[in-house]
Specification:
Cofactor: FAD
Oligomer: single chain
CATH topology of the largest domain: Vanillyl-alcohol Oxidase, Chain A, domain 3
Number of domains: 3
Number of helices: 10
Number of strands: 9
CATH architecture of the largest domain: 3-Layer(aba) Sandwich
Structural class: alpha+beta
Family: Belongs to the oxygen-dependent FAD-linked oxidoreductase family.
EC number: 1.5.99.12
CATH superfamily of the largest domain: FAD-linked oxidases, C-terminal domain
Strand content: 15-25%
CATH class of the largest domain: Alpha Beta
Helix content: 25-40%
Largest sheet: 9 strands, antiparallel
Protein name: cytokinin dehydrogenase
Shape: globular
InterPro entries: Cytok_DH_C_sf (IPR016170), Cytokinin_DH_FAD/cytokin-bd (IPR015345), FAD-bd_PCMH_sub1 (IPR016167), FAD-linked_Oxase-like_C (IPR016164), FAD-linked_Oxidoreductases_BP (IPR050432)
Strand order of the largest sheet: 3-5-1-4-2-7-8-6-9
Length: 283
């Protein structure tokens, strides 16, 4: 079984510090993921369809309209006969967090139901013809030292009045990544994954792909101009010079690997990193 929990924050610093504390703790939740919520009304009422509030009276008085809020989603796995022990462990963990107390919601589901939660959402969207639409997603890796500045600009200005889908925001430890791969990540030990999971269900206006792509461009341009150390995850660049900038000091290592394992540049031509037969004969 899984105890599935959601809470809200209004203070960004508390939200990020609590997440960092949880990912560093020896005993923590089994799943930790943060979200940014912009200009959403009736958030807690929407949660009531699947979750129950810890304090129904306090929850009924919470107002979310016109605010930037931060949601922390947590789970604790347990066997059905160990409910009391699980609840004690969860209570201790929650006591260390600084969320808005009236926004504590939870539910118990099977492990399979939790793993399949996105499919449940998919079925609802398919019923509304909102699943098979363009999804111009943007995934960024932001150094811990820059996340506050990033949030102020992006959530406080660029996306202040409009966003087209879920926004993920949570910290990860650099030490957990395999440094033998070619993935490019920020230099700091803790950095944040920020995922803009946009949908474009209409041909014009705020729901169009043009609008979503414009917002993505504004976010990337800010990161580059402010030089905050951002790296794109699953990046899409169109020139080799852009790729060199992306890889930075790791470019030469990446180029050597390409020459060794794919000297004719046959693989992945669509990424436009290496034109065919453009590699030097020896590296």
């Amino acid at each position: 079984m899984v105890r599935w929990i959601r809470v809200l924050y209004s203070d960004f610093e508390s939200f990020t510090e609590d997440q960092e504390m949880l990912i560093m703790a020896e005993n923590s939740f089994d799943y930790i993921e943060g979200f940014v919520i912009i200009n959403r009304t009736g958030i807690l009422n929407n949660w009531r369809a699947s979750f129950k509030p810890q304090d129904p009276v306090q929850a009924s008085h919470f107002q979310s309209d016109g605010r930037v809020l931060y949601c922390l989603e947590l789970t604790k796995n347990f066997n059905s006969g160990d409910t009391d022990t699980m609840e004690q462990e969860v209570a201790v963990l929650l006591s260390r967090l600084r969320f808005i107390q009236s926004t504590l919601f939870h539910t118990d589901v099977t492990y399979l139901e939790f793993l399949d939660r996105v499919h449940t959402s998919e079925l609802k969207l398919r019923a509304q013809s909102l699943w098979e639409v363009p999804h111009p997603w943007l995934n960024l890796l932001i150094p811990r030292s820059s996340i506050r500045r990033f949030a102020t600009e992006v959530f406080g200005r660029i996306l202040k009045d409009s966003n087209n889908g879920p926004i993920l925001l949570y910290p990860v430890n650099k030490s957990k990544w395999d440094n033998k791969t070619s993935v490019v990540i920020p230099d700091e030990e803790i950095f944040y994954l920020v995922g803009f999971l946009s949908s474009a269900p209409s041909l014009s206006g705020h729901g169009s792909i043009a609008h979503a792509m414009s917002l993505n461009s504004q976010i990337v341009e800010f990161c580059e101009e402010a030089d905050i150390g951002m790296k794109q995850y699953l990046a899409h660049y169109t020139t080799q010079e852009q790729w060199k900038t992306h890889f930075g000091a790791r470019w030469e290592t990446f180029e050597r690997r390409k020459h060794r394992y794919d000297p004719l540049a046959i693989l992945a031509p669509g990424q436009r990193i290496f034109p065919k037969a453009s590699l030097p004969l020896s590296l």
